[in-house]
Specification:
heterodimer; A: six-stranded mixed sheet; 0% helix; B: 115 residues; mainly beta; seven-stranded mixed sheet; four-stranded antiparallel sheet; globular
Chain lengths: 108, 115
């Protein structure tokens, strides 16, 4: 199965913390990526997880639980430029399977 | 910093015409991909390419589509007879490998409009 589920949209305030959740079907799992996509632009890589646990990278952290088929992306100290779509993406033997994306709006 | 490039940025064509979308992957990458994104929808895998042959293709990638690496730098996607529903943003991507940690780098995309 390839279903990836994440919220359609979220709103948060500048300077705050936001967590974007993702669940996926676990069969054929080869790692999970998070990409950021601004409107009309290409997806850009944020993070990847292949083992359980938390990966931290500056203001962004990503967590994975393989047994639960669950991941989240945590964004800290939100900035206006973080307004974008955040894509939960499975690696399935090299091809990327994208979720619909979560449209994050950061308000002043 | 090396990047994937794509040309043209925008292509408008008439239904039934052939189009060729061009990509220059990152030079030391071995794996190449095409994805598409219809406006308002999610990014969809089309095809992966390695060692001068298709590794995997999706159901979308039917006989109207073909890919080619005509020389050491270019990677092309051809649509033989475009349909209205082919209108989308087409992204090329490349990676060093296919393991979980191998990031795929995306080009800026070509917006194809079929009239």
């Amino acid at each position: 199965g390839q279903n990836i589920d994440q919220p359609t949209e979220m709103t948060a305030t500048e300077g705050a913390i936001v967590q974007i959740n993702c669940t996926y079907q676990t069969s054929g799992f080869n790692g999970l990526f998070w990409y950021q996509q601004h409107a009309g632009e290409a997806p850009t890589f944020l993070s990847y997880n292949v083992l359980d646990g938390l990966e931290e990278k500056g203001r962004f952290s990503s967590f994975l639980s393989r047994s639960k088929g669950y991941s989240y992306l945590l964004l800290k100290e939100l900035q206006m430029k973080d307004s974008a779509s955040y894509l939960c993406v499975r690696n399935q033997g090299g091809k990327l399977i994208f979720g619909q994306g979560t449209e994050l709006s950061v308000k002043p | 910093e090396p990047e994937v490039t794509q040309t043209p940025s925008h292509q408008v064509t008439q239904m039934g015409q052939e189009v060729i979308l061009r990509c220059v992957p990152i030079s030391n990458h071995l794996y190449f991909y095409w994805y598409r994104q219809i406006l308002g929808q999610k990014v969809e895998f089309l095809v992966s390419f390695y060692n001068n042959e298709i590794s995997e293709k999706s159901e979308i990638f039917d006989d109207q589509f073909s890919v080619e690496r005509p020389d050491g730098s270019n990677f092309t996607l051809k649509i033989r007879s475009t349909k209205l529903e082919d209108s989308a943003m087409y992204f090329c991507a490349s990676s060093e490998g296919t393991l979980a940690g191998n990031e795929q780098f995306f080009g800026p995309g070509t917006r194809l409009t079929v009239l």
